[in-house]
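Board notes (copied after class):
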Amino acid sequence: MNIGDKIKEQRLKKELTQEQLSDLLNVSRSTVSSWEVGRNYPDLETIVAISDLFGISLDNLLREDTEMTKDLSKKMRWNKYYKRILLVIGILALIYVGFNTKLRMDEKHYLKNLAVHSWEQDDYRYSGSYALEEDGVLYTTYIIETGFNPIPLKEHNPWVIARKDKLVVEVKENDKRYVVISKANDPKVKYDATVEVAETGNLIKSDPSWSDAKEQSLKAYLKKYQKEYVELLKETVNKRKEIVD
């Protein structure tokens, strides 16, 4: 005997109509009818309610109905999967909110420090740009607006570019120093490149794609203006610290 037959049997024993049973279980009459003819099955919560209403155990109610047992087991497994999926979504949402909150706090901190040190908004270059001119050096930085943004988290850390005459340098996260060697800045330059340098102004590593001539030319240019680059990078590091500290 399947569960539909047992529900009908117990209903008749209680002298209940399908409509009366549906009212007691908070379902429609057609739903009760579907159970009794075997078109579908009640869910787990309703099965428990039926068990309590008729005073029979779940074991007796489900016994012999292998299809119902399989269907119920399947639903229970999917219910576990859904809970796990919801848990993962919840964790990801918390991580996103946490990172976004951190970014908003950092953004406010950076903007406050820019104002304290007299940086001016420079949106005519691009949105989020700030500039400061001091002792013949033009410093620029960019504050990425917080929000849903595909830009990696590390890129939200401000970098600072400094330009003094034909010399251009960049200081990025962890005070990494870069020199921008470009024909646009100095027509005498033979090769364009942005190279990472040490505090001493010396090249840290070569690019495998460089020819020997290019590498020697870049090293010679760094050597020629080594003193100026070291001083400019030192000041640029300090300017970045004023923003992020």
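Comment from the instructor: The beta strands are 120-121, 129-134, 137-142, 160-164, 167-172, 176-181, 193-197. The chain has two domains: 3-64, 113-244.
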